[in-house]
Amino acid sequence: MPKVIDHDQRRREIVEVAKRLIAAGGFEAATMRSIVTAAGFANGALKHYFANKDGIIAATFESVLRETDTRVSTLDPSASPADALRGFVEAAMPLDEHRITSARVLLVLWEHSVANPDLARQYRELLTAWRAELTRRIAAACTQGRTPESPTVGTLADEIISVTIGANVASLMHPVGDLIDRYSDYVDSVLTRIAA
């Protein structure tokens, strides 16, 4: 009887290999040949799962974005508005080795997305959704009765997004974990300002 292959699992395995290669050596390290070799597949086997490298890169990009969504989806739905906001912000900050590695992959793929309209669109949609959710959570955590449409709330959301992106970039220039305390302090500080 022929072996049953879980094609979705194989695609996930290929994406994980691509992530590891990109994290270790940048975009150029994830060639079709290096992915096949690292995954332990025969030459040409990738064609059954992805038409080309762009397909693997798109799936890798989506996978990294989904990781943040997964962290957010596991937050306690009964948490206070301030704790819900904290969890949402912390989900995107480089506060552990896994998130720092994900940031490395995402930053490499951002550069590639400039020349890839589909990836650029995905990232714009992510930022738009992220900002909308942040404004909702900030307004809920404010003790001053602000709405998500308030300019102050929008400014805070833009600050958090900018700091988070900057923190992810800076975390790549330091030994893993060196900046975690600094970024945890930032989250505490911004939440104190929102609650004041």
Describe the overall structure.
The chain has 196 residues and is mainly alpha-helical. It has a single domain (7-195), classed as Orthogonal Bundle (Tetracycline Repressor, domain 2). 71% of the residues lie in helices and 0% in strands. Helix 4 (81-92) runs antiparallel to helix 6. The protein has helices at 7-25, 32-39, 53-73, 81-92, 97-113, 117-141, 151-171, 180-195.
**Quick one: biggest sheet?**
none
CATH architecture field: Orthogonal Bundle
Total domain count: 1
| CATH homologous superfamily classification | Tetracycline Repressor, domain 2
Q: Which series of helices and strands comes N to C?
A: HHHHHHHH
Assign a percent range to the helix content: over 70%
| Uncertain residue ranges | none
Number of helices: 8
Radius of gyration: 19 Å
Count of β-strands: 0
How big a fraction of the residues is strand? under 5%
Shape: elongated
Keywords: DNA-binding, Repressor, Transcription, Transcription regulation
Domain HTH tetR-type: 8-68
Protein name: Transcriptional regulator, TetR family
InterPro entries: BetI_C, Homeodomain-like_sf, HTH-type_TetR-like_transc_reg, HTH_TetR, Tet_transcr_reg_TetR-rel_C_sf
Key structural traits:
71% helix; 196 residues; Tetracycline Repressor, domain 2; elongated
In short:
Residues 8-68 form the HTH tetR-type domain. GO terms for molecular function: DNA-binding transcription factor activity; transcription cis-regulatory region binding. The chain has helices spanning 7-25, 32-39, 53-73, 81-92, 97-113, 117-141, 151-171, 180-195.
